UniProtKB/TrEMBL annotation, chains A, B:
This is Proline--tRNA ligase. The gene is proS. It is an enzyme of class 6 (ligase). It comes from Kordia algicida OT-1. Residues 27-295 form the Aminoacyl-transfer RNA synthetases class-II family profile domain. It is found in: Cytoplasm. Keywords: Aminoacyl-tRNA synthetase, ATP-binding, Cytoplasm, Ligase, Nucleotide-binding, Protein biosynthesis.
């Protein structure tokens, strides 16, 4: 298999798929639409998980685990939610296989093992969780409930792409219960903020915080808060959402609490989630034609050492020095790989670690040993510098910080350069068709206009930015009065 | 709900179920046989996961993720494995629901959305993983593959019990591929050793390492290595298994590698797993009539502070002291809870934290403040001691270590006291029926005898201990020649 990738300018989508497979992140499986997350890809996901989990716990949440299956009667209890997910859910109807009498060595579904009630493989867990919360909540003293779950979910999507849209994916889903509306709204906004901080400070991926329009909301939510990122091809990616669910689920599952005054009130809900889709966002924010580019904070390997030697003796001397420097770096929390393979030439190793996005590569050869130097190469800029060995640790530590910042700034500049304010629909169409990116435009607030624009341009309203200024304006499509700009884009 | 538990001597099984629910570990869900793992229970599981994951990584394994579903054609490829799991697997047959035309607001399976091939919800992942490994393995350079997966699996068990046997459970499953038989056998033994170390050093649960007899092996394995623990009611618990799978899966999925010499050889396999069942083992090894007893290394809360005060002023002074000592303990890695609730009396708090198994409770009252003392109570022995505040940190740290050791020793003594060597079948039946525990006896090596004994006594061969001595003997049932004693017990 050639390690070379299709160029992004040639075919962005092909480049993406090739990168995901060749950098050992994930691959398609024998199950339609389901992926295998390979060890290197999973190691990145584990770093994301660990940081998110920490942030959830710091904001007072605990983890728990709820069943994979949702009985049909619970699934359909909250009407909008059920309607939103019914079209794409995997259904378990039987609980046993038996030997097929007509085909030797084959199994068939045992018709005598039909379930009385079908089980839906969870596409999201509001139903099963609120049915559980019902028993946990009696009085105001039982609130708030602040729970998160790390789990797999299944949505039977027809068109799938590795990480971005798969039938099964991994995610976390927070489900909280509150005594008051204000508290629930504050919780959903807080989690949007946590997601934005994670995206920007760890993924180095700038995001816009906003609210979804009614037609783009989560099924069953009164408000969906989103973080939206811009990919290198000018398409937007919804990277995380936090929903204010009002009392819809409390009503559907009859979850009430006794107030201090002894009154019975319905409970207020939120839910919020990010998924392995973030992996797609990470890849498409930073990577280039040579492969993956990883922000140091999420790189499973931050520094790779490649020895350059002609004989065993040289190798031994280099290995000794590498071990010495590695130990110092490890003590500072830097993760290291020493690529000792004798089956590959240094050039091939360089290409492989570039493909895999390791932020820093350190080459050490015989001449370096003589001169007391080594060569540090940045993955993001390909810049190389020769550094005195005694300065290696300090240089690495500082470069890792620099790269983290530079990646964010580069992505932010790209995002800003590709966010265009427009005031006419001709300009709107032109930008969406030719430049791409976010288009900031006035909208009259109707679903009708929103749908019409989508139909004509394939652009959707990504969000109503939380920090949108109040300004007098006219809807870019209908000419009706508007007081705020919203962000449009084509999206993943 | 009364917090008091049924006594173990009254009804062990009832005691167990009550404890699991009342200590907030888990509860039954709306889905038959599936449990909800509550935050406190999940926090213990997370501690187990973190430690096991560390041990897997230290032994060279990486994590990855494979699909939840196994297409029927892959599922049935390895015959013994398929046969072993066919009787209890959940089957997805459809991928969409639609509005039921006959029942308003209800959904029904959409008959037009029938899958061409049924999908089995994984009961274990050998099939899907070996179908993937096929593409990953070409040459000896691709071996070994050392992968672990943390996942949920489903086995449609008819009789379920929280943690011990549930339709869905959480587990880890290692799946490794090797060039040689020796390497694969060594791997499976190594992982058995890792499990035993985890059980003994972290769960404080002594285990016997052994091999399963043919009839007790994992479906598709050539050898199953097990760790077996003894619960307080004299029944054994299989706590973890590691399988040498030979070339069965390589053959079924045609997974071959080119040797250095260019020959094509079938790959050798192992798989190994432990699950949330360990939670059941943990509970039944240490807990008592007052509730859960946790070994400090797995306790989410190691020390709980309960203030005893009559007025706000006293509370403030106590809180100040608690914060001071807490900070010192936290710096030493001890996890703390300060129970400030003003809705409960100290006695009620004591009972609650006893129920939840917090290893140490520290009470601090107004008189303690005057005297510069505090009272430390051990959960495992109920021993209390008054300690000078300046000695609190050192005492706590040392007591946590002591408790960890004491729990192991107590459980080991119990296990040893309840392991009986017997040489006649009358004695065998008597011990199994009246005393319980492990029975060490000679066995003639035939499945026939094994089945007969099971039929007559409900005892099964838990394992052939790895350290069993060679000795001349006669089968306890058939009188045939035997060279080794094996361990029998009734089991969970």
């Amino acid at each position: 298999m050639s390690k070379k990738l299709t160029k992004r300018t040639e075919d962005y989508s092909k480049w993406y798929n090739e990168l995901v497979v060749k950098a050992d992140l994930a691959e398609n499986s024998a199950v339609r639409g389901c992926m295998v997350i390979k060890p290197y890809g999973y190691a990145i996901w584990e770093k994301m998980q660990a940081q998110l989990d920490k942030m959830f716990k710091e904001t007072g949440h605990e983890n728990a685990y709820f069943p994979l299956f949702v009985p049909k009667s619970l699934f359909e209890a909250e009407e909008k939610n059920a309607e939103g997910f019914a079209k794409e859910c995997a259904v378990v109807t039987h609980y046993r296989l038996k030997t097929d009498p007509d085909k030797e060595g084959k199994l068939m579904v045992d018709p005598n093992a039909k379930l009385e009630e079908e089980l839906i493989v969870r596409p999201t867990s509001e139903a099963i969780i609120w049915n559980t919360y019902k028993n946990w909540i009696q009085s105001y003293r039982d609130l708030p409930i602040l729970i998160n779950q790390w789990a797999n979910v299944v949505r039977w999507e027809m068109r799938t792409r590795l990480f971005l849209r798969t039938a099964e994916f991994l995610w976390q889903e927070g489900h909280t219960a509150h005594a008051t509306k204000d508290e629930a709204v504050a919780e959903s906004l807080q989690m949007q903020k946590v997601y934005a901080e994670f995206a920007e400070d760890f993924m180095a991926m700038p995001v816009v915080k906003g609210a979804k329009t009614e037609s783009e909301r989560f099924a069953g939510a009164l408000d969906t808060y989103t973080i939206e990122a811009l990919m290198q091809d000018g398409k937007a990616l919804q990277a995380g959402t936090s929903h204010f669910l009002g009392q819809n689920f409390a009503e559907a599952f009859d979850v009430k609490y006794a107030t201090k005054e002894g009154k019975q009130e319905l409970v207020w809900a939120t839910s919020w989630g990010v998924s392995t889709r973030l992996m797609g966002g990470l890849i498409m924010t930073h990577s280039d034609d040579a492969g993956l580019v990883l922000p140091p904070k999420l790189a499973p390997i931050q520094v790779v050492f490649v020895p350059i030697y002609k004989n065993e003796e040289q190798f031994e001397a280099i290995a000794k020095k590498v071990t010495e420097i590695s130990n110092e770096l490890k003590a500072k929390g830097v993760s290291i790989k020493f690529d000792k393979r004798d089956t590959l030439r240094p050039g091939a190793k360089f290409a492989e670690w570039e493909l895999k996005g390791v932020p820093l590569r350190i080459a050490l050869g015989a001449r370096d040993l003589e001169n007391g130097t080594l060569e540090i190469a940045r993955r993001d800029t390909f810049e190389k510098q020769s550094v005195a060995q005694e300065d290696a640790v300090a240089t690495v530590v500082s470069l890792l910080e620099t790269i983290q910042e530079d990646l964010f700034n580069k992505a932010k500049n790209y995002r800003d350069d590709n966010t265009t304010e427009v005031d006419t629909f001709d300009e709107f169409k032109d930008i969406i068709a030719n430049k791409g990116g976010f288009v900031s435009a006035h909208w009259d607030g109707t679903a009708e206009t929103e749908n019409k624009i989508k139909e004509l341009t394939k652009a959707t309203i990504r969000c109503i930015p939380l920090d949108a200024l109040e300004e007098e304006g006219k809807c870019v499509y209908s000419g009706q009065k508007s007081t705020k700009r919203v962000l449009f884009a084509k999206a993943y």
